[in-house]
Amino acid sequence: MDPVTQWIEAWKIPIGRWGRTFFDFLTTNFALFFDTLANGLAYLLNGMTAMLLYLPPSLVAALLAALAFILQRSWRLALAVLLGLAFIINQGLWRETVETLVLVVCAAAASMAIGVPIGIWAAHNARVYKVIRPILDLMQTLPTFVYLIPVLILFGLGAAPGLIVTVIFASPAPIRLTYLGITSVPQPLLEAGQAFGATKRQLLWKVELPAALPSIMAGLTQCIMLSLSMVVIAALIGANGLGKPVVRALNTVNIPLGLEAGLAIVILAIILDRMARIGREHER
């Protein structure tokens, strides 16, 4: 090894030790806060899951098919949702599917609740965007397994850390797409609103958000897909759902179980994606 390399290695920056000290400080002084948050999120997720599992699977499938028809006015989509859920029931994966559905819906809702306001703020403030842009780049390029380490230290195993790590992973999409939608609003449209005496709040609610809605909804579909992509990884830290049979199939090389669970994830992803789409021509 050349002397320059030896000198550089000799002065190693103790990033790992600093990180351990920081997380030791958090777990020592804020353990009650993290435990309370984890227990509250677990109570919410478990309660929603128990409520859906209390109802007959056929009834829940019919209600979701009806919701798909109401959202998209497409009987073909409603029929596809019903058939897809019937297949999942047939494969004996209904409980896992409900657990995954609750996790994905909660994660997508939380990501949108965080991402849309931040995207609007960044679109109206160039300095804010300059600050959050490298943070978003880091969040989207950091390997997903790296998220698990601090989440496990702070929240332990269970459904709550699975939700938190999914929200962290999915939040950059709505932030970026909301920013893109707001900044892409045509200037003549804004000038017309200002000419009619609209305030900044009125411009936001009556001009910018309606014009940016397709981009914002694209952020929602991205949230759903990113959340589903974290299902298997979340299962590694104790989250229930379709990720568990996938992990079990991987550990035991159980090809039939892996195919069944994987296909159930694909069906659920297609259903949620089609139901969340807006602005397309409805099939009749």
How would you characterize the overall build of this protein?
The chain is mainly alpha-helical and 284 residues long. Helix content is 84%, strand content 0%. α6 packs parallel to α9 and α12 (200-229) runs antiparallel to α15 (255-276). Mean pLDDT is 86; it is low at 279-284.
Descriptive labels:
0% strand; 284 residues; disordered C terminus; 15 helices; mainly alpha
Mean pLDDT: 86
Give the tally of β-strands.
0
Radius of gyration: 22 Å
Roughly how much helix do the residues carry, as a percent range?
A: over 70%
The description of the largest β-sheet is: none
Briefly say what this structure is.
This protein is an all-alpha fold and 284 residues long. The chain has helices spanning 3-10, 15-29, 31-54, 57-72, 75-90, 94-124, 126-141, 144-155, 159-170, 172-183, 187-195, 200-229, 231-235, 243-252, 255-276.
